[in-house]
Amino acid sequence: MKRIVTASVLALLALAPAGPARADDGPALMPQVAGRGLVSAYQALHYDPALRLRDGRGAGRHVLWPASWKVCAQSPDAGTPLTDRKVTLVVVKNHESCRT
User: Fold this and answer.
1) Is 41 exposed, middle or buried (0-12, 13-18, 19+ CB in 10 A)?
2) How many angstroms from the chain centroid is the CA of residue 55?
3) Of 11, 30, 40, 53, which one has the greatest count of Cβ atoms within 10 A?
């Protein structure tokens, strides 16, 4: 899927360093972000620029304003070490329900 980097995402990326938090003696672990707003998920993942977003409706929509979206699902699961793992979040607009 083709990603478009938008001004709003770039603005979010400028707010904090990239990469999720790490335990003092181990690899970074995937936080639980499913069920959160997308801005909160970006914060929990420390605005990781490698983060992939997928439209939960399957319409291929692009996120232009992260505050208008929420996270329905995540890959990998919470607690999974993130060493060399790609993070994908399935997102829908805030007024839409998550499909299961």
Assistant:
1) buried
2) 12
3) 53
Locus of tokens 């709003």: 8
Q: Which SS3 state, helix, strand or coil, does residue 70 take?
A: strand
- pTM value is 0.73
Sheet strand arrangement including 69-75: 52-55, 88-93, 69-75
One-letter-per-residue 3-state SS of 13-46 = HCCCCCCCCECCCCCEECCCCCCCEHHHHHHHCC
The 10s digit of each residue's pLDDT in 50-65 is 999 999 999 999 999 9
How far is Cα 2 from Cα 79, in angstroms, rounded to an integer?
28
The rounded distance, in Å, linking the Cα atoms of 2 and 100 is: 24
pLDDT, residue 100, reads 52
